[in-house]
Amino acid sequence: MEYRIDKNKLIDILKIWDSFIRREIRLIACGGTALTLLGIKPSTKDIDFLVPAEAEYSHLIKLLKDLGYKNESGFRWIRDDGFVFDIFRGKHIHTTEILFSPLRKGGNICIEIGTTHIYVGALNFYDLIISKIFRGTSADIEDSISLLKIKREQIDLKKLLLRYKKTASYDINPKRMLQNLSAFLKQVNRKIMNVDKIIKEIELWL
């Protein structure tokens, strides 16, 4: 059975966590979790949070253990309710290292959920799209297309491309990351707007 979680259920879980916390923990939603909290997707299968501050990360992990979550892998935590939480630390999301801390100004979008100690933000649109294109699955590409389509006026495509190129330069396989970008732009070209010139420019980077 595939479990999915909507915004309200996710907020309910975070409020339970909040009731056991006595210090601030800043959670930055990424992936489908961010899109769900932003109202762009109705639900998500993956629950992904980035905890940029090391001390806050350690405190959260202790809390998860106290609440009965088990560590399935390096960043994956599960409980018998069927929901899986991927908790990343610092600036790493899966294998992607974003350029800047999401705690700096403009790094995240505040999501008000009525908690006292837990701050929830959604990763900024640029790093959200970049981290999804880096993974490169068809679902991630589609999510990126949806975000760009809905938030088109708030996303500077040139800024996105330059930021993507710089992020890719730090990856172990930058060429593959640029190929993922090319695949994404071909979908943009087909579904949103003409970006033929940009695609040709990207191909020169390869």
UniProtKB/TrEMBL annotation:
Q: Which InterPro entries match?
A: DUF6036, NT_sf
Q: Which organism is it from?
A: Candidatus Desantisbacteria bacterium CG1_02_38_46
Write down the Pfam families for this protein, in alphabetical order.
Answer: DUF6036
Protein name according to UniProt? DUF6036 domain-containing protein
Q: Which residues form the DUF6036 domain?
A: 111-184
Domain of life, per UniProt, equals Bacteria
